[in-house]
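Notebook, p. 212. Picked up where the previous page left off. The plan for this session was modest: take the two constructs that came back from the sequencing core last week, fold each one, and keep the raw output in the notebook itself so nobody has to go hunting through shared drives later. Recording the first one now, exactly as returned: residue sequence, then the structure token string.
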Amino acid sequence: MDLLAHFKDSIKKNNLFSPKDKLMLAVSGGVDSVVLCELCKQAGYKFSIAHCNFKLRGEESDSDELFVKELANKYEVEFFAKTFDTKAISHQEKKSIEETARDLRYAWFYELINQSTNSQINYILTGHHADDNIETVVMNFFRGTGIKGLRGILPKKNKIIRPLLFARRKDIEDFAFLHQLKYVTDHTNLETAFTRNFFRNNILPEVMKFYPGVDKNIINNIERFGEIEELYKQAINLHKSKLLEAKGNEFLIPVLKLKKSAPLKSIVFEIIKDFGFTAHQTDEVIALLDSETGKYISSETHCIIKNRNWIIISSAKTEDATNILIEDREKAVQFSLGTLKLETTTNYKLQTTNFSVSLDAKEVKFPLLLRKAKSSDYFYPLGMKKKKKLNRFFIDQKLSKTEKENVWVLESNQRIIWVVGHRIDDRFKLTDRTKEVLQLKLILAQ
């Protein structure tokens, strides 16, 4: 293979970058990144070199950094280097060494791009090649990442470019031999403690004993799955546009419409993954469709709530949400109006105001739902035995349009217990049979 010719063709075919762009090459010192440097030099591209020292191999790590620095001197290009205490960071963040190193590397690359006001770095180039892509696809299959994982590594994503994905490892090694290029060998590539090495050195060689052409088949499938993913995304985006209704910082999905959607599991997963939920939580969300109001599941960033005929995707940051679930263990909740404090007590003689109310705890069922009021809502205002629509109540209270839009209600088991800052529901008032009191106090935001 004429690697240089294919290199130029791949860049042009995939519109990766232009001759005027300033490139920064991520160079470990291994054969892939060293060959990448030589190809860029022979092709006439302007580049600098960046090296990460992850301090994972003692003196070898420092020796590799020195080698890459000398490589930058050879090509007379700018050199960037950064050292990371990868093991300590991995332990602190409770992530694998591989994941930690990858995250540190790319975070630093983007930092360099953002700081490159003088050198104007346009793109970061890495030495990933076709064999890396094969390994990635097989690993993703076992991880269960779906179609997105089966299309492998993209040649261009944001500012990261992998221009060698067309080349096999042997083609790269042959080019290095032909041009007498020196490079370093990482002995940890032979160790199976790292996931990729295990697949590279154990799984794939065993599979190839039974299917000798499996590597070529996977390479061909990568292109097919890339096209399949495009069709899949188009279909999913169409479903999302019909199902998701944006309302402020939240998204609402009509339960009946979602239940009629097919394939339901794939559609639900593609919706929830954008909000920090995992594939394993897909069935839990589907179960919410037939659950009672107030049921919910959470991710680190969001909460999915069943509320009557709607599924609500709300931010876990309560100050950003307009639908907030409150469990009985919670003592205070912050939201846009201020802070709602909850306390259970046996003190029946608490002062009652618009912002501090007492309810019969026995009648209140958790979780509570704190949400923005709707004009179609109704409740039984304290002292009345008949229900009244909130819209009518607002008129009686002479609330302005702006004040109406800023009213919140607290709901228990689909019944409003308090129009916050205005009136409690008569069904939850204290009586001579009350044994335990739920006190609610609103402290307005400054």
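Okay, moving on. Second construct, recorded in the same format:
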Amino acid sequence: MIYHLFDSLKDLDIPGQGLFTYLSFRAIMASVTAMLISVFTGKRIIRWLQKQQIGEEIRDLGLEGQMQKKGTPTMGGIIIILAILGGVLLFADLTNIYTILLIVSTVWLGALGFADDYIKIFRHNKEGMSERGKLAGQVALGLVIGLTVCFSGKIVVRESAPAENPPAAEYLEEAEQATQAGTVQMDVIKSTKTTIPFVKDHEFDYKWLSPLKGKWGWYCKWAIYVVMIVIVITACSNGTNLTDGLDGLATGTSAIAGVVLGIFAWLSGNIINADYLNIMYIPGTGEIAVFMAAFVGALIGFLWHNSFPAQVFMGDTGSLAIGGIIGVCAILIRKELLLPILCGVFFVESLSVLMQRSYFKYTKKRYGTGKRIFRMAPLHHHFQKEGIPAIIDMPKRALAESKITVRFWIIGIILAVLTIGLLKIR
């Protein structure tokens, strides 16, 4: 709103007005605003949740310190969502198609998670919303995002780089003006191309998966792309939900991923930077950097309350939303195939659950007794537990919760640096 206010008053030449034309300034302001909202508003929301006795119901899994968390307020994802929206509504371009899609995703998945938490807490149903109901909500959002990417004329990519290498001064000036104005004076098209590491030009086109050619091939490639978008959003949302089991774990790892995606959005939305790094130029995605700055700021502010020992849990209200935001952002900047590396913690956590369930069912059916690969799943609980027979029996002693969280953060940082480094590997 502040951005649009100053934009409407640009003819008055107000001192400092020009700052709002810079993505860097607006991103910083959105991040700081979201952080402050998360820290200070969070205190009041936590007190309100305590008065309403909205506490987490804990199952006794025999984990150290677990039962001490009983009664800790949950649904703290409300704090994250309010902080993100506060920073974005004030400093982002609300007419930008990418900003609109990310706001819709935040509200949509936040509402879905809120419904799940509401059923668990107020209706005293530990299972919450049915898996089918949650999946239907995630798939529906994936279809909305996928069809918008498919049919919106505002979502395009650059087909080819300009011939100048390095660019001439005239081109640099025009490119900078086009980037700031959000206009494009280049050959841009609708495309199903995305980014993939280890190959020339870092590009992969979903049309290569289409068994059809011609007119039907065009429909087929977009259908494949939309299905992929649905899978990515659903997987990211559920992966974050599974990771949210230790104080600060999902919050910290999501913030790390958010920083990288914000950097990618910044680079992809700038003609000069995209050409220099030889990555896909996607007009308008610079605004995603403002959104992701607010996203990271909100998570850091929430970590103030959620770090060990947590004063509040984000619940499904937060975990479904932040996972979905990561997935949608990666799709919009065409970096979804990098997510298994960037979000490797979420990926391995989800994989550990699938492996554990599948192996347990298989061994129980074949031998009559179910066997475990891990002591417990998701993976972070494996390191908290000892004394349970499992194929993977390391470490011998259970680790403290705070140590597990920090080590997972460190792994997340390593994966983030590796993901950025992949831009130069061909």
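Notes on construct two before I forget. The first helix runs from residue 2 to 8.
Flagging for discussion at group meeting.
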